[in-house]
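[Automated response] Your request has been received and processed.

Submitted sequence:
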Amino acid sequence: MTKITIYTDWSCLWNPGPGWWACFLKFWKNEKTFSWWKKETTNNQMELTALIKALEQLKTDKYPVVIWTDSKYVLDGITKWIKNWKKNNWKTANKKDVKNKELWQKLDNLMQKFNTEIHWVKAHADDKYNNMVDELARSEAEKFNK
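Generated structure:
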């Protein structure tokens, strides 16, 4: 079956501080890799932004979207925590505001727009595409540091 595959990763030099995100999208034989940065951000914000930016690239909802992330924060947030956050008006179990609420809301809307499934991949292991987006984000961050 035809599907769209997405890999995302991020790199921050300091937390908070400047950060980069990177994405890889594959659809049939078409592949696209892109990245960008933000001057003042956090690791978690870059993890969310990477996936948001990847999903914003999609032009159709006709095909299933398979997402691979090495971020347990993103995986657990979108598959476990978000249900209760929404039920509790975007409050945590401790009744505090959800951190990065606007990014989570944006990601939630995009995930619902498409037929998505999300999987965790071990970082810095043997996954070609995960390593590729990791290298892209890290190399851009290192250029900034020079």
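Summary generated for your ticket: The chain has a mean pLDDT of 93. The first strand starts at residue 4 and ends at 12.
If you did not submit this request, please reply to this message.
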